Model the fold of this input.
Amino acid sequence: MLPLSRSIHLSSERPAWQTVLLMAGNLLDLVPVGQLVPRVLVRLNILLVPETNPVRGQLRDGPAFVRLGGAAHQVEGSEGDPEMLARQVLDWLNARLQDEAASEAGSALAREAFARLLAAHIFKDGNGRVARAVANWLLLRSGFVLRADPRGYTRCRKEAYYGALGVYPADAAPWNAFFEDLVAACYEPPRIGSMVAKARFEPSG
Done:
């Protein structure tokens, strides 16, 4: 078992979104490097999606759709078996995490993991929450410091968010730019000489 890089302290002084991301990071920290499996994503979904949601923790049973501008749009490539797609993404991520050089490239790794998880769209609901939590964890373990809510950032920029994802990976430039802007807005970059060992949360404001 990996030691926790962050301890869970449920404090009224910490925003709810920050507490949830902290708990998600601790859950991922408990998984030995290179051993992420689909049930870990299910546990993340149960943690991140409200208890009142009737499909919380459920894999989708058909093609995935997102609603944008009042219309439903099918997620390209989401026709496959969700568990198989989850394993493919996690096999790729596990291999990268075991590669020390790739593991330390936190921003690039987080950016691609986020996009791949969203493309797989394995859950009936909460795919964005799970993808953001994994990306956040990858950023923090590389030394980034969380300052603002990444979910709030994307919700205010839905059209750009889904537009960038809609052409990924055929055209990665829009997604790369969107993610870089998200990181710049929501995180403090690693300090010079900082190592991967400890990810940190610091309150915004």
Remarks:
- The longest strand covers residues 65-68.
- The longest helix spans residues 82-98.
- The CA atoms of residues 89 and 116 lie 6 Å apart.
- Residues 1-11, 195-205 have pLDDT under 50 and may be disordered.
